[in-house]
Design goal:
Rossmann fold; alpha/beta; single chain; seven-stranded mixed sheet; about 260 residues
């Protein structure tokens, strides 16, 4: 059995401690979960993800298009603007396929399509879904070979469900969370939750997140979170999309573990 990644496990422990010390967090956490209708936004797909990430990706990677690492993988002047283009720059092989995780995948349409597109482009890939809804649909994808692994997380110490308590057991090349647990987690837990996932990235690995803050975006400690990422070997940037509501995310976050840093 693989051991949980240490830095990610430490962040999950902090989340559990915060909830245990504040009894109101139990009910608030469960209330947030209750806001997620099983049918809400369940049909998110590859096209819609690309729509929301396209401009942030161009801005995020455009600033490092002159770096020696970027020139090595794609050539000077190239700016990625699609998810497939970004993932195609990450080195992999049949013995070391891309490790991709989606947090809150709905019915799995995105990760199912992404897996197929990567395979069509001869990119070896292993996909994992972390979910608390649509388990029967995701299990069918797994049984048909269109999803490699499914995790239904729960805190062993608190007895609470939620992806905040999931600890990756291996480094990942890409993490997606579009209206996943990063969306519904309590604001007080969001920083630790984000860093939990970020610490699971391999050098050069990328996290794609989209969420509605539920509050005035100015009240979220985004500059503080970006600084925390930078101090720990990551490049991170929040983007406000000005949509809001539950149909569209109002915030996009892109995070990359810098190639020279260590998990």
């Amino acid at each position: 059995m693989k051991k949980p990644l240490r830095h990610s496990a430490e962040r999950v422990k902090r989340i559990e401690q915060k909830i245990a010390k504040a009894p109101s967090f139990f009910s608030r956490h469960l209330n947030q979960l209750g806001l997620l209708s099983p049918d809400w936004n369940a049909h998110r797909d590859y096209v819609s993800y690309n729509h929301f990430f396209r401009k942030p990706l161009r801005i995020f990677f455009g600033s490092q298009s002159g770096s020696s690492w970027w020139q090595h993988v794609r050539g000077k002047g190239f700016v990625a603007s699609t998810i497939l283009e970004v993932l195609s720059m990450i080195p992999c092989s049949p013995k070391k396929p891309l490790e991709i995780l989606e947090d809150g995948p709905g019915k799995g349409r995105f990760i199912q399509t992404l897996r197929r597109k990567l395979i069509e482009n001869r990119v070896p890939v292993k996909t994992t879904a972390v979910a608390i809804h649509h388990i029967p649909e995701l299990e069918r994808l797994k049984e048909s070979g269109e999803l490699d692994a499914l995790v239904v997380p729960k805190s062993a110490s608190l007895g609470l469900p939620g992806a905040e308590f999931f600890v990756p057991d291996r480094p990942l090349d890409a993490i997606f969370s579009m209206f996943g647990s990063i969306h519904y987690t309590l604001p007080e837990l969001r920083k630790d939750h984000l860093l939990k996932y970020a610490h699971a990235l391999k050098p050069g690995g990328i996290m794609f997140a989209g969420f509605d803050t539920f509050t005035d975006v100015k009240k979220e400690p985004f500059p503080d979170i970006e600084r925390s990422f930078a101090k720990q070997g990551f490049k991170a940037k929040f983007f406000n999309l000005h949509f809001g509501g539950r149909v569209f995310p109002d915030t996009i976050l892109l995070v990359q573990r810098l190639p020279h840093s260590r998990p």
